Amino acid sequence: MTSILNADLHCHSVVSDGTLTPEELAARARTNGVELWSLTDHDEIGGQHRAAAAAKTQGMRYLTGTEISITFIGKTVHIVGLGFDADDLALKQGLMQTRGGRGQRAMEMSDGLAKVGIHGAYEGALKFVGNPELISRTHFARYLVESGVCKETNEVFRKYLTEGKPGFVEHRWATLKDAVSWITGAGGIAVIAHPARYKFTANEEYALFTEFKNHGGRGVEVVTGSHTAAEYVTYGETAREFGLAASRGSDFHSPDESHTDLGTLPYLSGELTPVWDLLTDRIQ
Ligand code: AMP
Ligand code: MN
Ligand code: MN
Ligand code: MN
Q1: CA-154 nearest atom, ligand 1
Q2: Which site among 163, 184, 185, 275 is 20 to 30 Å from 65 CA-CA?
């Protein structure tokens, strides 16, 4: 296929921390001209069959997807999986195990917030949760906006939910090796999500890409809602240096919160190998 394809291979539904259902996302993607779509809920593939069916209804091609949280040299990194078998047992079990710590973490986040005078945050966040196994910082952010503590979710993250702030709780996610193995073991390909977001030093980033490749990782997000135009160029070069395919995705979560809508990013450069070229037999 060609790089000039309106592929959107990264977004979230109510099955994780998005506000739209898989069906609503599919309709929105189609309206925006998406030709190849993937729903990539955090640590969860429970929405995959619905998303694939909705894509079919809308006349879009579909790749299965997920976004796995991992801990790499003490920092949280996200690995996107694409084109796997959504019924694969080892993948499902791995993701279930990854989701497992979220309930306890949420209660500790709530305790941290209570210490600065914000009470009932756990119960408040729960009202925004669509999947009881997937309570995330995003749900806390929505509650703190609703209750008037902050004006918007970005402000909540900045003031309360990032490292060193009262609602932040250190958490150990899956390992890089496990995440890549679960995805590839299920017949899919692993992709480093939004690399510019991690603020790694050059050496740390080199270590991430090198280890990722050694474990069998195949792609990196180049054109994403989390990157600037300059970063599309930087990570396009990184993709070529490491012999990785390039992915494109909005990381859309909600009409009210996301600045990048489904299907509205620039195309991938023709000099890059698109991830969908590695997945022609996995496209539904
Ligand atoms: P969690 O997996 O619970 O740590 O939550 C991570 C999610 O929080 C990400 O997937 C984003 O959706 C959201 N997030 C992280 N940082 C920010 C930010 N600065 N502003 C808005 N949302 C953010
Ligand atoms: Mn998210
Ligand atoms: Mn992410
Ligand atoms: Mn995401």
Answers
A1: 20
A2: 163
The residue extents of the domains of the chain are 7-98+172-278, 102-161
List phi, psi (to 5°) of 193.
-80, 145
Buried-exposed string 131-149: b where 16+ CB fall within 10 A, e elsewhere = bebbbbbbbbbbbbbeeeb
For domain 102-161, give the CATH number: 1.10.150.650
- Tell me yes or no: is domain 7-98+172-278 CATH 3.20.20.140: yes
127-174 per-position pLDDT tens digit: 999 999 999 999 999 999 999 999 999 999 999 999 999 999 999 999
Q: What residues have CB less than 8 Å from 157, skipping those under 6 apart?
A: 137, 141
Cα 281 to averaged position of ligand 2 atoms, centre (Å): 28
**Residue indicated by tokens 């979220």:** 102
Q: For 35-91, how does the pLDDT look when each residue is reduced to its tens digit (9 = 90+)?
A: 999 999 999 999 999 999 999 999 999 999 999 999 999 999 999 999 999 999 999
Asked whether 71 and 39 are in contact (CB, 8 A), the reply is no
